[in-house]
Amino acid sequence: MAADETRVTKIASINIKSVANRDCCLVEIHGPELGKKYVLDSEDYTIGRDENNNIVVDLDNVSRRHARISSRQGRMFVEDLGSTNGTYLNDQEVLSAQPLRSGDLVKVGGSIFKFLDGDNIETQYHETIYTLTIADGLTGISNKRYFLEYLEREMGRSHRYHRALSLMMFDIDHFKKINDVHGHLAGDYVLRELAQSIKRMVRREQCFARYGGEEFALVMPEDGPEKARVFAEKIRKLIEEKQFIFEDKEIPVSISIGVADMTPDMTEPNQFIKVADANLYRAKKAGRNRVIG
User: Fold this and answer.
1) Which of 28, 154, 193, 214 is catalytic?
2) Residue 58 banded pLDDT, cuts 50, 70, 90
3) What EC number(s) would the UniProt record show (predicted)?
4) For residue 94, what pLDDT is reported?
């Protein structure tokens, strides 16, 4: 009898494995269920706010039945189900069923899912989860946790070798108004587009991160105060001149920047951040869209 029970258990585990180890899934990289994996083990998956959906996203900007992921001739497709705020594939609105490729980002309201497909799906999943620990899911740049660790490390290095270290803190002017007038999806677009535009200017040895909400941080090792301020002005001008267009409407965007340089008495990241934040506050009080530091 014991042998029979062992055989039954073995057969059951094989059946479960064959269902669970499909070669594609969705991973929530931004939203209320951060890091959750949804194995696509059926031909039709719906996403929405209603509890009857396969994937439930409890956000106000998600429709009751928002989007569908379906299998057709061996490929997975995403389509919008007439949602209020639309479904986006790699920042492009989904107007008809679109095929999915591994690594694609599907945006449903205020949540973002990463589609994974292929033989090494478990490896991809673990890499995605690791990335979530150091990167911001919405903007794709470093997150606050990584920024604080990097800043502490560079401050120690700067003290040891007596090298310059500069910190830039900045945020988007009147960001609440952008959300109120254009909607939160437009606000997400501005955050993501701004971050990616600035990221292209950042050198590998620097750290560019989303500090929280609409505030960002940039650590600049060895540049010195003059270079740091010049770089800050370039970033400010880049955003002032850039066109932000969401759903055929242009959104005016500017940023205020506070710059600080590390001094010998600074031993903790919070001390450094406090000085840069104070200069950011001064930039706001002086009329916004400017650099102070």
Assistant:
1) 214
2) very high
3) 2.7.7.65
4) 97
Measure the CA–CA gap between 112 and 118, rounded to whole angstroms.
Answer: 20
CA–CA distance, 67 with 39 (Å, rounded to integer): 16
Helix (H, G, I), strand (E, B) or coil at 234: helix
Which tokens is 237 given?
A: 């001008």
What is the mean pLDDT of the segment spanning 186-197? 97
Q: Which residues have a Cβ under 8 Å from the Cβ of 72 and sit 6 or more positions away?
A: 97
Q: What percent of the chain has pLDDT over 70?
A: 92
**Identity (one letter) of the amino acid at 9?**
T
Say what the pTM is.
0.83
Query: Considering just the CA atoms, what is the radius of gyration of the chain in Å?
Result: 23
> Is 214 annotated as catalytic?
yes
Q: Which residues of 229-251 are buried (b: 16+ CB within 10 A; e: fewer)?
A: bebbeebbeebeeeebebeeeeb
Helices (H), the chain: 2-20, 121-134, 144-161, 175-182, 184-199, 224-241, 269-285
Give the Cα separation of 240 and 234 in Å (integer).
10
* Nearby residues of 104 by Cβ (< 8 Å), 6 or more positions away: 89, 90, 114, 115
The C-alpha atoms of residue 182 and residue 184 are separated, in whole angstroms, by 7
Residue with tokens 């997150």: 143
- Among residues 118, 138, 116, 225, the alpha carbon closest in space to that of 190 is found at 138
Q: Which amino acid is at 76?
A: M
Tokens of 206: 């620097």
Q: How much is the average pLDDT of 161-168? A: 96
Buried b (16+ CB within 10 A) or exposed e, 73-111: eeebbbbbeebebbbbbeeeebeeebebeeebbbbbbbb
